Amino acid sequence: MLTAESKVKNSFLSNLEPNNSVLANPLSKEAVELLHTADFPTRKSEFWKYSRTAKIQNGNFSFQENNNFNFNNAFSNNTIDIVNGKIQGNNTQGIIVKKLEDCSSEELSKIGTIANFHRDVFSLMHQAFFQDVLVITVPESTVIEEAVQINIASTGNNSVSFPRIFICAEELSKSKFIINTESEGDNQLLYVQSEIHVEANAKLHLELNNSANSDFLITDTAANVESGAVFHINTLCFDGNWQRNNLDINLIGEFAHAELNGIVMPNGAQHFDNHTMVSHCVPNCTSSENYKNVVDGKGTAIFNGKIMVHQDAQKTNAFQSSSNILLSDNATVNAKPELEIYADDVKCSHGSTTGKLNSEALFYLQSRGVPAREAKKLLLKAFAAEVLESISVDAVKELAETAIDKKLA
To answer: Residue 185 to residues 71, 155, 283: CA-CA distances in angstroms?
Structure first.
């Protein structure tokens, strides 16, 4: 009798035909071989401690051929569309966009070098079954004024898709990107992997807008940040049933900087899990993390953030904060900030706070004639204001503000 674990793995493996192009890819072929013996997370798996994956293990997922989708969120006219893991449309200016098959040997040698594709059974699945790679280059010294919006959609019932993105921001370039996920259908697994290389003195700002209503959404974002470069990412979690977002940021050149922010608002029975790892690999780098969780109903928010300071990374300055507000007695927050330091000349801080809305401030606003619901909205927007202000695209900021209003309607 097959276990649930072997059922879901076999359902994926059975989608591979002997002549499938996936097996011709050395990276995918190796992942398929490893997948046969890989185990799913258990309650003892630290990396998945607060997120159960049994429903994914029991899923009967299949790949979809439908390539049509009408995206709802329009943040930019500079767009690329990916539907069910396949690149469908490119309407961009100022950047170089390629599919995997069009890449040079030099470009191919960079893909797959930043993310850890052997971390767990899920990353192995993605490595084994991705169907295409969106490869983007921001040319040296180029300034992209209008954000590039990468639209990703999954369609159909019981569907699975594994979109994959590689972005290289060349030296001295400045760019903004939006990864916008949407979905249509029931019981879906959408798993997005992104590798980002920010070269010396470049700046890249990424808005990760998780609007997909899919049952299961996983995002992996891994970035290498070189000397004097800046990488800034905002993660917005409002929709869907179950989300897991993994960020792995490596500061590999002196005076590199990374900023990670998040607004996370689960309600009902939503489950949103954010894991971050910022590795300070060399001296004189800085990083800042600021996550705001607002949890209502029977929702669950998880933040597990780790700062790793390597032995030679002197003069590191790293800050991490997780602030949480519970709006109901049944809401749950699991916060685990971590520091691992192997250098002695550093400034590092981390902390987490959890509580309810300030009753005195709420009373004050109501005593001035502000209705209770509006008073609550004002306080929560003030709570999230620091992250909202860091959003680089006005249309994305407006969507976040509207989403907060809807959550509290």
So the answer is: 14, 6, 48
Closest CA to 179 of 200, 195, 197: 195
Read off the DSSP letter of residue 36.
Answer: T
Q: What pTM, to 2 d.p., does this model score?
A: 0.93
Last residue of a domain, one of 230, 253, 276: 253
Q: For position 6, what pLDDT does the model report?
A: 58
Q: Of the residues 253, 270, 287, which one is the last residue of a structural domain? A: 253
Q: How many domains are there within the chain? A: 2
Task: Tell me, yes or no, whether 85 and 204 share the same domain.
Answer: yes
Q: Using alpha carbons, select from 91, 37, 69 the residue that is nearest to residue 188.
A: 69
Closest by alpha carbon to 95, among 200, 179, 170, 197?
170
- CA–CA distance, 356 with 296 (Å, rounded to integer): 11
Please check whether residue 203 lies inside any domain of the structure: yes
Count other Cβ atoms within 10 Å, centred on residue 235: 25
Nearest to 134 by CA among 149, 117, 116: 149
Residues of the chain short of pLDDT 50, as ranges, are: 1-2, 16-19, 23
Task: Determine the Cα–Cα distance for residues 273 and 303; give it in Å rounded to an integer.
Answer: 6
What is the distance, to the nearest Å, from the Cα of residue 298 to the centroid of all Cα atoms in its chain? 23
Using alpha carbons, select from 185, 149, 145 the residue that is nearest to residue 73: 149
Whether 329 is in a domain gets the answer no
Strands 96-99 vs 86-91: parallel, antiparallel or unpaired = unpaired
CA–CA separation, 70 vs 167, rounded Å?
24
Q: Which stretches within 174-298 are classed as H helix?
A: none
Q: How far is CA 217 from CA 25, 50, 159, 161, in A?
A: 25, 16, 12, 10
Query: Which range marks the domain in which residue 67 is found?
Result: 4-253
Residue 289 within a domain: no
